[in-house]
């Protein structure tokens, strides 16, 4: 896997572990820096776009996107996909809320646009 440039929400306090997103030409990667399993969820830009749209909707739609979010009674938030249900990124509700606030502010929208490697933009 190439070196990834990870981004977290600006709503995540500095120095705290948070949900991070990175992209390669064909895939999106999601992880939580404090997840003890070190899981990295790999999905598509289309699946991420559906998740972002879902998280921005009020109220949340009933549709079941390819990226699924489940919560447990103890406050653990689990992020997984229908393609790889056994790869699960775990976080807690405050970190998930920071991610959702970033989503609602549009901080991750560029991950759903066509991939352009850094340094290849023609600035004429």
Summarize the structure.
By secondary structure, the protein is α+β, with helices and mostly antiparallel strands.
Defining key terms:
single chain; 124 residues; alpha+beta; four-stranded antiparallel sheet; three-stranded antiparallel sheet; 2 helices
* Biggest pleated sheet: 4 strands, antiparallel
**Could you state the order of secondary-structure elements as H and E?**
EEEEHEEEH
Distance between the termini: 32 Å
Given the C-alpha coordinates, what overall shape results? globular
Q: How many strands appear in the DSSP assignment?
A: 7
Sequence stretches where pLDDT stays below 50 over 5 or more residues: none
Structural class label: alpha+beta
Count of alpha/pi helices: 2
Strand order of the largest sheet: 1-2-3-4
Radius of gyration using CA atoms only: 14 Å
> Overall pLDDT, averaged?
84
Helix content: 10-25%
Which percent band covers the strand fraction?
25-35%
Instruction: Supply the number of structural domains.
Output: 1
Task: Describe this protein's structure.
The strands form two sheets. Strands 1-2-3-4 form a four-stranded antiparallel β-sheet. By secondary structure, the chain is an alpha+beta fold. The chain is 19% helix and 25% strand. It has helices spanning 45-56, 93-104; strands at residues 7-8, 19-23, 28-32, 40-43, 67-71, 76-81, 89-92.
